[in-house]
Amino acid sequence: MKDHRCSPVTILAIDDQPEVLAQIAEIAKNSGYRCHCVPDAHAAEEVARETTPDLIVADVNLSGHSGLTVCEEIKEHIGHQEVQVMFLSSSQGPDIIRRAHASGGSYYLRKPFDSAVFVQLVEKTRMIAHLV
Questions:
Q1: Which of 60, 72, 107, 111 is 20 to 30 A from 92, alpha carbon to alpha carbon?
Q2: Is the sign of the CA dihedral 44, 45, 47, 53 positive or negative?
Q3: Looking at the DSSP assignment, which residues form a beta bridge with residue 84?
Q4: Which one, of 1, 2, 27, lies nearest residue 13 by Cα?
Q5: What are phi and psi of 108, to 5 degrees?
Q6: 3-state SS, residue 17
């Protein structure tokens, strides 16, 4: 396990909207985080095999896939069970937060999201990972 006090947070961001990935990449850059931004499930699985992220940030609804399922598969089949997950969505569905938590999500952030709130949640993730 990484020493989370010294090393930068590594984020795997999965979203099929380029503007959302650009926003996450900019936040990561400005906050000193490392970020791997990918547009789909296949690319996310490839990155997850090559690196162990501290946090996965995923859209709930990816083109052709459920972000919930993608994250479950990364955690289960690639061996990243301890990696924290933050789900993003513009969905207003009444059970979306419950489903996100049931799929292993630590946090749920509604799109469009505030950059400061995003950073606060990433920092909470860092603290949780350090305590584990």
A1: 72
A2: positive
A3: 55
A4: 27
A5: -135, 130
A6: coil
One-character DSSP codes across 79-104: S-TT-EEEEEE----TTHHHHHHHTT
Both structure tokens of 10 = 């590594």
Tokens for 124? 């909470």
Q: Between the CA of residue 90 and those of 3, 54, 60, 109, what are the distances in Å? A: 34, 24, 9, 9
Q: What is the percent of the chain where pLDDT is above 90?
A: 66
Domains of the chain: 10-131 (3.40.50.2300)
Residues forming beta bridges with residue 10, ordered by sequence position: 34
Q: Are 118 and 27 in contact (CB under 8 A)?
A: yes
CA 91 to chain centre: 17
Q: Distance between CA 31 and CA 76 in Å, rounded?
A: 29
Tens digit of pLDDT for each residue in 43-63?
Answer: 999 999 999 999 999 999 998
